[in-house]
Design a protein that fits this description.
Chain B: Keywords: DNA-binding, Plasmid, Sigma factor, Transcription, Transcription regulation. The structure holds 2 protein chains of 2 kinds. Chain A has 4 helices and no strands. By secondary structure, chain A is an all-alpha fold. Chain A has a domain of 52 residues. Chain B is 72% helix and 0% strand. By secondary structure, chain B is mostly helical. The longest helix of chain B has 23 residues. Chain B is elongated and about 55 Å long. The chains are: A mainly alpha, B mainly alpha.
């Protein structure tokens, strides 16, 4: 017997985006409490998000600004021919 | 922040390169990070992030100062990253949808074929694993996921950076999350 609302995955996704209104949120929560399969799926999705967010912040190498500036064209390109 | 940046932009337009160095200083880490997460390689990330700044410099007069400068920069950088990713792929009809897999195309198929053996995955450090899993995402989803969860940008801004309607951005994030969930099912 499958009693899952058709849109349950959609509800989970919108919930994770922070897009659910309180009544939809209530609907999702009640369903997750009663349905182990959906609960597991929801937990896996939020674990996935936490996993990606555990990526550490990365800094550019210390000589990045200098190297970038060296790559710029020496003179600003202007419309028209100079000299 | 934007007012300060616009002041510097005005100086750059007048030919002051030092003012541009200050702009690079401000945004270097954000831009390098997004390139690194998209490309998974430090040398390439550095190269593409520098290229993005270079293009921003050359085209700075086209930037609309009523908009957010970081959005414009991110857009240049993500486009360059996506180009680079596509150039690295072998020459199939990559955009063609794979039959019976709604929304999936050859990019995703190739990505899945890159899977490492289980014992190798188990040996990976968490940080290495995160990057590996992001790298396996099809580039369409990868950009949206990186901007949302690594750069932590609002969806509206991601939609501007990727030049896609908000609904499409959400769909890509949903599919990206779902793809990651499947990739991580053995974790």
């Amino acid at each position: 017997m499958n009693t899952c609302p058709e849109n349950v995955l959609e509800l989970m996704n919108h919930y994770l985006d922070g897009d659910l209104n309180p009544s939809e949120e209530q609907q999702l929560k009640e369903h997750l409490e009663s349905c182990p399969d959906c609960r597991e799926q929801y937990q896996a999705l939020s674990k996935t998000v936490a996993f990606v967010q555990s990526a550490s912040h990365i800094q550019a190498p210390s000589d990045f600004v200098q190297k970038t500036m060296e790559r710029l064209p020496k003179e600003r390109q202007r419309a028209g021919v100079q000299r | 922040m934007d007012a300060l940046v616009n002041k510097r932009i005005a100086k750059v337009i007048k030919g002051d390169q030092n003012a541009f160095a200050e702009i690079v200083e401000l945004y270097q880490h954000q831009l390098y990070q997004v390139c690194f997460r998209m490309l998974g390689n430090k040398q390439e990330a550095e190269d593409i992030a520098q290229e993005a700044f270079m293009r921003a410099y050359v085209n700075i007069h086209t930037f609309d100062q009523n908009r957010k400068f970081s959005t414009w920069l991110y857009r240049i950088a993500t486009n360059l990253c996506i180009d680079r990713i596509r150039k690295k792929k072998p020459d199939y009809h990559l955009d063609a949808e794979v039959r019976g897999t709604e929304g999936l195309n050859m990019y995703s198929k190739i990505a899945n074929e890159d899977e490492l053996p289980e014992e190798e995955l188990m040996r990976m450090e968490v940080q290495e694993r995160v990057q590996y899993e992001i790298s396996r995402l099809p580039d369409k989803y990868r950009a949206a996921i990186v901007l949302k969860y690594i750069e932590e940008l609002p969806l509206a801004e991601i939609s501007e950076i990727l030049d896609l309607p908000l609904g499409t951005v959400k769909t890509r994030i949903h599919r990206g999350r779902e793809a990651l969930r499947k990739q991580l099912s053995n974790l």
